[in-house]
Amino acid sequence: MPHEHDDNNAHTLLPSEPALRVRALETILTRKGLVSAETLTEIIDIYAHKIGPHIGAKIVARAWTDPDFKQALLTNAETVLGEMGLAGRQGEHVQVVENTADIHNMVVCTLCSCYPWPLLGIPPSWYKSDAYRKRAVREPRTVLAEFGMMPHPSQSVRVWDSTAEMRYLVLPMMPAAAAGCDAEALAQWVTRDSMIGTGSPKAPQI
Question: How far is 166 from 109, CA to CA, in rounded Å?
Fold first, then answer.
């Protein structure tokens, strides 16, 4: 039976436009000798498998279980994280802000997409969007509601504007249901969005 060419199916096999652009940039950089293919592969592997929200989650879990570490983190996160080897590129200056019964913290970068990469990995697309960057400052409670977050009316919402000089990590409140868990188990409750302030810790899926 002759094989019929299906343009629609063939099109679905092509990479997305962003992927094509990335591939084009990789080709240009490697051909000009500005970076090797091996280096690019290593960088991609690091951000895909080694750097991500799980690192920030471990820090939050430790703060929940170690009062001295929590106090040091809130007092001088830059020093603490530096001693842990977590103050590299995009994470040189970090301040940790704590959610309490009185205050809910939320992070945005109104100018671009400054973000603590060593702690949270690559920022989500919505964090970089114009809509989030503009509305998070003007109407934070409305934006939080769209994320499914409803701070109590008695809680004030504090919006932190991340910049190249200072990035922020939210220390969420530990859920009452997680009481009694050790730090390793607690880390499974911590979500990326809870460390940005647009989400809450959640029970891990079993």
Answer: 10
pLDDT at 3: 42
| Per annotation, catalytic residue among 114, 162, 181, 200 | 114
Conformational region of residue 180, where left means phi above 0, alpha means psi within -120 to 50, and beta covers everything else: left
How confident is the model over 143-152, as a mean pLDDT?
96
Asked if residue 181 has pLDDT above 90, the reply is yes
Tens of pLDDT along 7-16?
444 444 444 5
Q: Can you read off the two tokens belonging to residue 63?
A: 């703060």
Residue 109 catalytic?
A: yes
Give me the CATH number covering residue 136.
3.90.330.10
**What is the total count of domains within the chain?**
2
Mean pLDDT of all residues in 136-148:
97
Claim to verify: residue 20 and residue 74 sit in the same structural domain: no
Which entry of 36, 112, 129, 156 is annotated as an active-site residue? Answer: 112
Whether residue 112 lies in the annotated active site? yes
Active-site annotation holds for 114: yes
Catalytic residue among 16, 36, 113, 154: 113
Cα distance between residue 5 and residue 55, in whole Å? 47
- The model carries a pTM of 0.78
Active site residue 113: yes
